[in-house]
Design brief:
Layout: E1 7-16, E2 22-28, E3 33-35, E4 38-40, H1 47-59, E5 61-76, E6 79-93, E7 103-107, H2 109-115, H3 123-132
Parallel strand pairs: 1-6
Antiparallel strand pairs: 1-2, 1-4, 2-3, 2-7, 5-6
Helix pairs in contact: 2-3
């Protein structure tokens, strides 16, 4: 992928404790999809800092980042995009709908895997489960 046109982004697979754990998915009305909280890096921003910022902006949740997960690479609008993901435990906060995200759901891993719109996002469920051991 060309660094000139590369869109750099970061996000988290946000989870909370339970038996079993629950995973947060966000609905983005602009794309009418269910996805992970994520967004583009600001100039000079560290990817992990971006991921935590995006979780707070899109979900209202404070989180503690954990293991780095896989990096997703795909093309959007003719431009290559690279999204770095981390596991992140939700530790507080409250969701309020906003212009980017109108809904948030907490689902068990199997239901989260099914609800995700894009096939490229599904392996991150397994990556989270492996990271949590």
């Amino acid at each position: 992928m060309s660094d000139v046109a590369l869109v750099r982004a970061a996000g988290c697979v946000l989870w909370r404790r339970g038996d079993p754990i629950e995973i947060a998915l966000v609905h983005r009305p602009k794309y009418d999809d269910w996805s992970w909280p994520k967004g583009k890096l600001k100039r000079g921003e560290d990817p992990l800092r971006c991921a935590v910022r995006e979780v707070l902006e899109e979900t209202g949740m404070r989180c503690v980042p954990g293991a780095a997960l896989r990096t997703s690479r795909y093309v959007v609008g003719g431009r290559p995009k690279e999204v770095h993901y981390w596991a992140a435990e939700a530790v507080g906060g409250a969701f309020l709908p906003n212009k980017e995200v109108d809904r948030l759901v907490w689902l068990v891993p199997s239901a989260a895997r099914e609800r995700l719109t894009h096939d490229r996002d599904r392996p991150l469920v397994d990556a989270l489960l492996a990271a949590l051991g």
